[in-house]
Amino acid sequence: MKQRPGNTKADEQAINIIIAAVKSIAPMSGTDIELMLAILQYKTVKKHQLLLKEGEVSRNVYFLVSGFFRMYYIDFDGNEINYRFTDQHNFLVDFQSFLIQKPSHFYWEAMQDAELFVLPYRDIQDAYASSPAWNNFGRLMAEHVYLQLNERVEMLLFMNPEERYLHLLKTKPELFEKVSQFHLSSYMGVKPESLSRLRKRLLKK
Amino acid sequence: MKQRPGNTKADEQAINIIIAAVKSIAPMSGTDIELMLAILQYKTVKKHQLLLKEGEVSRNVYFLVSGFFRMYYIDFDGNEINYRFTDQHNFLVDFQSFLIQKPSHFYWEAMQDAELFVLPYRDIQDAYASSPAWNNFGRLMAEHVYLQLNERVEMLLFMNPEERYLHLLKTKPELFEKVSQFHLSSYMGVKPESLSRLRKRLLKK
DNA sequence: GGGAAACGTTGACGTTGGTTAAGAAATGAA
DNA sequence: TTCATTTCTTAACCAACGTCAACGTTTCCC
Known about the structure:
The structure is a homodimer of 205-residue chains.
Chain A: H1 12-25, H2 30-39, E1 41-45, E2 50-52, E3 60-66, E4 68-74, E5 80-87, E6 91-92, H3 95-100, E7 107-110, E8 114-120, H4 121-130, H5 132-158, H6 161-171, H7 173-178, H8 181-188, H9 192-204
Antiparallel strand pairs in A: 1-8, 2-7, 3-6, 3-8, 4-5, 4-7
Chain A binds a DNA duplex (30 and 30 nucleotides) through helix 8 and helix 9.
């Protein structure tokens, strides 16, 4: 792992976590893992710090060793709209900005102190070019993210706010522990007041 | 190209179209193209015919040489909800069902007589395994489909129906030529009556 | 601990989309 | 051509979300 200026030190534990996460996505030989360890950079981020701002190009894929992030967008009226939440032990990337290397529409904010690994765009493209296993990993990761996004479209397209709430309760109960009603509401595509009323309505039933 | 029973015959022209489409997504050597031609099957479909039904597993990727398809879903109330439209010279796949080989939620219907190429799941997985170029292609296709879907989420999440209509007019004018207002409405996430009213409202401005 | 900020709830009111129903217009098939 | 089907529009009514505002509660941070 690169120890560049500004890099804090990753412990054994953190490295084992990312190796397990990668292997759970695609099979990897020792050499392929070495390739990854050589490009990893370790970083810590304080609560409320931003990893990415609107207008910046996402030049990295991140892996969240610990902490919790939200990806949000600021709409025409200046409201923050939460687009996605990412929990620890997951990869974290503005896939759109990363893939086409264009400025992002999003902000990435740490909602808790976080530790993460940084995988620079350039190094990942090199890995794709030099290792079939990494290319395979890239394909699986894209497919994986596609499926996640697909779930979101289905929720927004096929369900009304009440159904979305019940669906999230059932499929992502963790969210309700980590995220305030306020932040959840924009993720659901409604205003905080509407979520509050919706919950009241459901309680009556 | 395999000439199995039931396969009609593809002409030179159709083969050139798919080769061009593949090369526009990822660079391919002659050998890689041969690999594809060896697994291609040619098929024609009449207007209103279904390529896939809810509950079936999507066992193929298709390439649309000519014609126009809609992918739709039937909601709890029995309404057909259009999820995606695919025009000629594009790949056509229920990515979710295809990736995990689980039953699809969707129907694929030809809205015009169509000619297409069929690429079976098994053969594609073999191509991924045997050719890095195909793995690369698979990754790029997944990324490409991701970006398309992402556009859709942004539209549904960040815009109200009126904004969605104006946005589609600007970004996908072809849709308005090929698709009736009726079919467009469910794609936009509203009822036909609402789209009609919305258009009337806009005309007044 | 205390003040500020963020969050949650409620009310009143306007707007808009859903629902139902009906009929006109366009399209398609026999 | 003619009949049936699909699509489009309009109307009336209702339910639900957005907006604005007020206020209580919780959390955060110095």
